[in-house]
Amino acid sequence: MAEMVICKSCGFTSEKGKLGDRCPACGVPAKMFLPHDERISPRRKMLLSLDIHPVMVHFPQAFTATILLVSIAGQVAQGPLRPLFGSTVQTLGALLPVTIILSFASGIFDGKIRFRKVKTPLLMKKMVFGSLFFLLSCALAWSVLAAPLSSPPHFMLVILLTFPALGCSTILGIIGVSLLNARFPG
Q: Are residues 10 and 29 in the same domain?
């Protein structure tokens, strides 16, 4: 097994042989690195290194932000562009709950690998906000599929549903970042 080192400034870990003269994360000199004993099994490390959940959460975040921006642009657009904005919002709105379900499932997998359980305080908080995000996304999907998006009041409803969904997404991201380097040993 390769010798691991950790940057005592920022916590970045690397194989000693792959380390240059500076920390690739924060830029301090390599002399700031200390020997590091990996506290998780190689299999768990490999599964976590796939970053399945961190990658999956970008889809609902991007969809939600895009729905908001395209809905606002749809209010301003005139002529033949306006229906294109509506179609984009409908497509993303219909797919948003699916992306949240996939992110939720990948979060459960990540929690089981990272902490060997999913009932930790922060994971429970993430599940509450994830459930609220999912319910808002279902309401958003229903609103974009139930009626044509050509009227300004309907676009406003979509915009109003998107703001709290984006808030949930932001809270989930903030909690997730705090958990990125946490893992139960073994």
A: yes
Residues 6 or more apart whose Cβ sits within 8 Å of residue 132: 164, 168
Q: Is residue 54 part of a domain?
A: yes
Q: What is the band of 185 on the pLDDT scale with cuts at 50, 70, 90?
A: confident
Domain that holds residue 121: 45-179
Question: What pLDDT digit, counting tens, does each position of 35-82 carry?
Answer: 988 788 889 889 988 999 999 999 999 999 999 999 888 888 888 888
- pTM beyond cutoff 0.90: no
62 and 111 in a common domain: yes
The residue type found at 155 is F
H-helix segments, 10-120: 42-49, 52-56, 58-76, 81-115
Sign of the four-CA dihedral 123, 94, 98, 176? negative
Residue 29 per-residue DSSP state: B
Judged by DSSP in three states, 1 sits in coil
Which region holds residue 150: left if phi is over 0, alpha if psi is between -120 and 50, else beta? Answer: alpha
186 domain-assigned: no
